[in-house]
Amino acid sequence: MEVETSTPAQQQASPEQQQQPPPLHRNLLAIVNVFLMAIGAVAGPLILRAYFVHGGNRKWLSSFLQTAGWPLLLPPLISRRRKDGSSPLFLMPPRLLAVAAALGVAIGLIDLLYAYGLAYLPVSTSSILISTQLAFTAFFALVVVRQRFTAFSVNAVVLLTIGAAMLGMNGGSSDRPEGVSRAQYYAGFAMTIGSSVMYGLVLPLMELSQARLAGRSVGSYSLIVEMQVVMGFTATAFCAIGMIVNKDFHAIPHEAREFGLGQGGYYSLLVGSAIIYQFFFIGIIGTIFYGSALLSSVIMTLLISITEVLAIIVFHEPFNSTKGVALALSLWGFVSYFYGEIQTNAKQSDIPPNIEHLSV
Q1: SS3 state of residue 27
Q2: How far apart are CA 114 and CA 146, in angstroms?
Q3: Do residues 193 and 254 make contact, with C-beta atoms less than 8 angstroms apart?
């Protein structure tokens, strides 16, 4: 999240490519993308946890659902191509297609790790662990897109790390869901951290591929949607192969009959998961397009408190003092990072700190 996100490729871009979209708070499409990401980030974990709480046990299926909604993006793309007869049906160059496909496979693996984590961890615990992706995103953004580290961002990384460590020491019976062993709890803990590490790498890679291969002009947003279609298709295909090997497709009818919310509730939950998570993925890639990978990660960290409260209300999850301190540290880390970005942007532009001047 910088005043001017600049890469070598952008500096060499044509004037049309360098045309920047309006600031985030004045850009309707940007606001819509942030809103979609917020819906998915808050509701997605709750729906997926509900699947496991009420009798679901298929990790490959739950990871499949996180990207299976990608066909929802096809109608607007096709409609836009028909309106503009001069545009080809598919705008994505071969290099961007290959990058998007590779990122899709990585997202499929991330989804699997995340599904395992939600199967064994309370949503409140999983959400705090996922917040550590801000630290990993900051590190990989430094390496991949040369995002600057400041004292504030270092402080945020330290606070998030301490919060995750506290949760690791909180793995006693009070925080474990019923029927989950200590080994399963820590396996879920490790897999959730693993998904955060991988997602922290994928977000800057998305930003880099957008900047170098798609550009940041307003007109290139269609190309970004195409990129999400390819990533969604590839991730879904990856998980579908896992489902075939694990015989998940054959198990769906039986699992639906035994599901705690009934067959109607079971299939409604599956469809709802696919739609909600598609909101999340199209929202996050749009937020990266209009802002940066770090901006998307910061917003997701901010949404943790909402997910925490809803998880306690919906699933009656325990919320002890250790978890409360870990949440406070996570939010402190978010505030520290965001304040540091405002100060840095203000110094670069020689303008008093004001959100209006942030080009995100």
Answers
A1: coil
A2: 28
A3: no
